[in-house]
Amino acid sequence: MKFILFCEGWTEKGALPAFLRRWLDAQPLRQRVGVQPVRFSGWPQLVEDAPKKALLHLRSPDVIAVIGLLDLYGPTLYPADKTSANQRYDWAKSEIERRVGDPRFRQHFAVHDVEAWILSQPDLLPLTVQKKLPGKAAQPETINFDQSPANLLDRLYQEALGKHYKKRVYGEELYGKLDPNLVRQKCPHFKCLTDDLANLARQAVGMT
């Protein structure tokens, strides 16, 4: 049994399946549950193709659910009156799930991008970068649309190390060490995602 993870970039495809499986493997499930990524070329393609591709994957009897994952930072699909993170999250989640039209499809968002989850465990970063982190990094999901966590990391890497933060290279390395439980403590929307995965898995395979 497995989840299909719709994601919008190479970092998500390369790093997140193993990261989310570590969370699922720690749950009291009767059998191991996998996470299979499907990469799209950016958020517009994911939003456009999700209805057709989700229903195709959901025909398979070993698929528990299809999980869409997008960064909240970046997409321009939000109505003009949706300006706060929570307004955009709630509207976009509801809208994309409506377009797919199957309760086994769940849309989630990284607030404001998946690098926020890395900031939940700052001791994984180089010491010189750690020292430059702003106070708001203690609550990573509050790093907002003005400067996303990915942009913040890129700026700090340049200031501290004289080089850019390479999302795909450094992201996969950091996610290999990242503790999902620490991310859950600091990122409520990530907790919502992992709770959803655990609940769906329990319904599908049962508990030990």
Give an overview in words.
With 208 residues, this protein is of the alpha/beta class. Helices cover 49% and strands 13% of the residues. It has nine helices and four strands. The chain has helices at 10-25, 43-57, 85-100, 115-118, 127-130, 149-161, 167-175, 180-186, 188-205, and strands at 2-7, 34-39, 63-71, 105-110. α3 links the parallel β3 and β4. It is globular and about 50 Å long. The protein starts with a strand and ends with a helix.
Features:
208 residues, globular, alpha/beta, four-stranded parallel sheet
Strand content: 5-15%
* Number of separate strands: 4
SSE succession: EHEHEHEHHHHHH
Estimate the global geometry from the Cα principal axes. Answer: globular
Ends distance:
16 Å
What portion of residues is helical? 40-55%
| Largest pleated sheet | 4 strands, parallel
Based on secondary structure, the structural category is alpha/beta
Across the major sheet, the strand order is: 2-1-3-4
- Residue windows where pLDDT falls under 50 for at least 5 positions: none
| Rounded mean pLDDT score | 94
Helices, by number, come to 9
Rg for CA atoms: 17 Å
